[in-house]
Amino acid sequence: MNHPRFFLFALGASVAPLFSAETKPALKITTPMAAPAWAKLERQLLADNVPACREFFEKYYNPAGELQAFLRWGANDGPDDAFENFNRWPELHALGASDEVLQIYLKAQEGMIRQYSTLKTVDVPAGRNGMYVKEFSAQSDWMHHGEGLQIFNRMNLSAPNLPVFQTRARRFAGFYMGTDPTAPNYDPEKKIIRSMQNGSIGPMLRPATALDWVGDPFDAAGFVALHGESTYQQFLEHYREYSEVLGDHFINLVATTLPTTAYLVKNETVYKTWIVDYMDAWLARMKANGGVIPSHIGLDGKIGGADGKWWRGAYGWGFSPVNPVNGRRENRNRIPRATVGFANALLVTGDQRYADAWRTMMDAVNSHARTTDGKKEYPTMFGDAGWYGWQARPWNVGALELWTWSMRADDLARVDKNEWLTFLGGEQPDYPASALQRDLDTVARRLAEIRNDKTPAGKRLADNMLDKDPATTDTLVRLMLGGVPPGVAGGLLQARLRYFDPVRQRAGIPEDVAALVSELGDTRTVVTLVNLNPTTARTVIVQGGTYGEHRIEAVEQGGATTRVGGTNFSVELAPGAGAKLTLTMKRFAATPIAAFPWERN
Question: Considering the entire predicted model, what is its pTM?
Fold first, then answer.
């Protein structure tokens, strides 16, 4: 395998000197540690992911990185799904998996951009000059934009210096900041994105049709549609009620990831200013709407537009369309996607008022609880007749994210119980090993499914292999980084810690090293580092936050305290050595940037 420095150099990246003051060990660990079960499983999972990912790529892609399937425009099986086939690959490499993972997903990204830039629709107006224009989706909604941008949004974890990445980051942000006249998505006076359907050719300023959502007609016989449709007519019926797209919508908050990504390149203030302006306009609307974020802002900038119906819009508070497969109405409020905007604003500003606004909304929704037959019920939807979609537990969408933003005990109390939080609370000590073993089993199962898939390429839709993607990283993100898996909404990775290898000059924990975050607090993080190699020392750089947004004040180990006073420190682990470290931190106290530690001023 080529060294990552030379691989990225071949793609045009600038490469920093191999060593700098940042890479000198600040802490030496020499105490022997018997290899914990979790550490061995962690290293095995990082290793086993790689050949499984290789087989996935070789099965469904050609050597040029192009997807081998029947490619279409559409919200069901369109371009976003093709790129989603590499969900979790950027996180996998950034955790420490082989550089082959990075090489493959970068190749696939370029291959798919070429494919969808060439493919054109016949009947759908937006795609007639290419499903991708200027290397970006011509027009779609931010549920699907976000899903399709997961590779791009997270490739800065491992390849922030690639010129093609940095150029795209600025160009893509421009589509939503009002700086690209060919993509007038943003109204800077009203501070709105002008439509829920938007992209590199600009906004859709008319009601959407089912055709706009579904794509050109095709014979659906012989295909397996993941949403259960068996005919093209059923595809159309699925999107019959998705017409309300004019004006801004909370789902557009995912678009803030593009200026955030551009800001993380070199901290140019124009991007941060736009994020704050746009998000603060939304905070003002929430306050004016009783704390609840609207799903419809008219082109006039007014909440609810001309009729004041703030709950309108596809994927909005009152969106319960008919599922043509079963004939039932289903609640499809996609408000969880909006958390991305709040997370981005907090990242670039460090200001907890974005967390406060989400907490206020949770309380506002739950204040409309009712009692039925002696049992309290809480709403999840709002329509012309008021609140509906009742459930037995309080509405807690985004509760886990809110807790990681604030680290307040009352916010933790809102989160549904899970094994990870139980472990962080000092219980269930076998959770790391059992969860890692489950993930190893998942990798093996998906690899078997890949090998058993006999579907010819001409009968595969772009989303047919989504469930076979073997990259399995959620447990690793929780245990190694103390982070929340970023999911499919298109947001950035939120984590307490990250690791870098100063010897190989790459992101990710060095070979043979394992990490376990066992405690998270507002100012305290506990992590165990261990070197499983019995003969070779390893050096790892520990960073506060995904992008160095958390300041590390000091590290305590074995009764001795080492002052750090910065965003990272290095640890030299003797052969077979390990230790538990307690970090004192100030969260969101530093300017985030995607550059690696040794590249910073």
Answer: 0.95
